[in-house]
Specification:
EC 1.1.-.-, 3HC_DH_C, four-stranded antiparallel beta sheet, Neuraminidase, elongated, 475 residues
Length: 475
């Protein structure tokens, strides 16, 4: 190879499966620096994530790390400590799913503690400490860099060390199965994506038009609704573990009509969900028992009522701060008949779900409001609207005062509420991440988006044209 050709030669490593967009770049020993920079820029423009090794290394970066993981995994199985399935499971639960970053985790534990642990392993297994304990002692511990507990930081600067180990939520989203070839209506799926929007796995499949989803952080359980055939009394409510096991029906067919959004009241161990053609809102225990109606908007045995879309309950949320439930009655598709209501979480004495004097219409004439969520600390109601422009396919919010009265605004002309994000494609699912001050929106067009609580910094995390997203939840 000529000297000129050597300067244009380098090592690359692409990853499988194809949705992993990482590529490693490494010099051949003669590669011109400008060639490396050029390739990094070009790869970023086509959606790849390039990583450059600083020097030549057998296995590049990731396979060097992966080799050591494989060695230890083989050791714990070969030594009879655990079986392969259990070793895989604990690795996924403690490293993969939380998105644990090894160096950030070491900073969090403390580098002096890490060194002591490694020293014990080295003594027990007669390991060389040159690149572990000795390296930590010389480069970090001796100069006072112990991780987040020291003002000098560790592998990360002190201001970012704690942030680097903060848990980012996993995204669970429903695909109703209607965006591809439709052979039957039981092609819905529950999928998991990372905080960055990378596909992780399909949790459950073969679902009958799934629509609403919620996560119990206390129990690591998913709850979701399946609409069944629209207009028929064959909707169902399911629960299943986050790991994809123990799926079970909570509400069997023949009880509810078309269940839509579902939310969890962890404080009272209750589930709330709307029933579109059932013309009501239901509440039950987390095991499906003690099912009761809390709001009724019409007679579901009456054909006229059942066909009246202004009576259809779709979105549901609640606020313990205000002691209220909120729900949407969407109206006809793109019909500008949508309304948002509130009522007390407890039915007033002497009243019934069908006759409640505490029921209040907060907003009316909306394009087509769908799912809801409530941000407690700011007393703000958020919702998606899948109606037409100029006010549809939007993310919206309405603030409340301490007494629970709506604070109407004129920030958007002709409206009493705020539109904070636009240009969704049939916006449906909605979930607030209060910890990180984010809002997630899923739409039927195949996009999952995230923005700040004020609607700024909107980014599309996922776009899959062959998906029709409905509900979205976080864990």
């Amino acid at each position: 190879m000529t000297p000129s050709a050597k300067r244009r030669t380098l090592n690359t490593h692409y990853f499988m499966p194809p949705h992993v967009r990482v590529v490693e770049l490494m010099t051949s020993g003669n590669t011109a620096p400008e060639i490396m920079s050029l390739l990094v820029d070009r790869m970023k423009t086509v959606g790849l994530k390039p990583f450059v090794a600083k020097r030549e290394s057998t296995g590049f970066i990731q396979n060097r790390v992966w080799a050591s993981i494989k060695r230890e995994m083989l050791h714990v199985v070969a030594e009879g400590i655990v079986d392969a399935q259990t070793a895989d499971d604990i690795f996924v639960e403690t490293i993969v799913r939380p998105g644990t970053r090894p160096f950030a985790a070491m900073d969090y534990v403390g580098l002096d503690t890490v060194a002591n642990i490694e020293r014990t392993y080295a003594q027990e297994r007669h390991l060389d400490t040159t690149y572990t304990v000795d390296y930590l002692q010389r480069e970090f511990i001796d100069v006072g860099k112990l991780g987040i507990k020291s003002n000098k930081g560790g592998f990360y600067p002190p201001s970012t060390a704690a942030d680097a180990v903060s848990t980012k939520p996993r995204i669970f989203v429903l695909d109703n199965g209607l965006s591809g070839q439709i052979d039957n209506l039981k092609q819905g799926k529950i999928l998991e994506y990372s905080f960055e929007g990378e596909y992780i796995r399909t949790v459950f499949k073969d679902q009958y038009l799934p629509d609403g989803i919620a996560v119990s952080q206390e129990e690591n359980v998913l709850f979701w609704t399946c609409m069944g055939s629209p207009g028929q009394k064959d909707g169902m409510i399911y629960a299943g573990k986050l790991d994809g096991n123990d799926i079970r029906p909570l509400i069997q067919q023949g009880i509810v009509h078309t269940p839509k959004q579902i939310v969890i009241d962890e404080a009272n161990k209750k589930l709330y969900f709307t029933d579109r053609e059932g013309l009501c809102i239901w509440r039950c225990d987390k095991d499906g028992s003690n099912l009761e109606q809390v709001v009724v908007t019409g007679d579901n045995n009456n054909e006229c009522d059942r066909r009246d879309a202004t009576r259809w309950c779709v979105g549901i949320t609640f606020s313990h701060t205000l002691g209220k439930i909120f729900w949407t009655q969407k109206g006809a598709s793109k019909g500008w008949q949508g309304r948002i209501f509130s009522a007390n979480m407890t039915i007033p004495p002497g009243e019934t779900a069908a006759h409640r004097k505490d029921k209040v219409c907060l907003l009316e004439g909306l394009a087509e409001p769908i799912d809801l969520d409530f941000h407690e600390s700011t007393k703000t109601l958020y919702w998606t609207d899948r109606g037409e422009m100029p006010f549809g396919n939007t993310l919206n919010r309405l603030r409340f005062d301490d007494r629970g009265y709506a604070l109407h605004t004129d920030s958007t002309p002709h409206l009493k509420h705020e539109i904070i994000a636009r240009k969704f494609h049939e916006a449906i699912g909605l979930k607030i991440d209060a910890r990180n001050e984010h809002v997630y929106v899923a739409d039927l067009g195949g996009s999952i988006c995230r923005c700040k609580l004020d609607g700024s910094d909107k980014v599309r995390l996922v776009f899959q044209e062959d998906r029709a997203w409905t509900g979205v939840a976080l864990a």
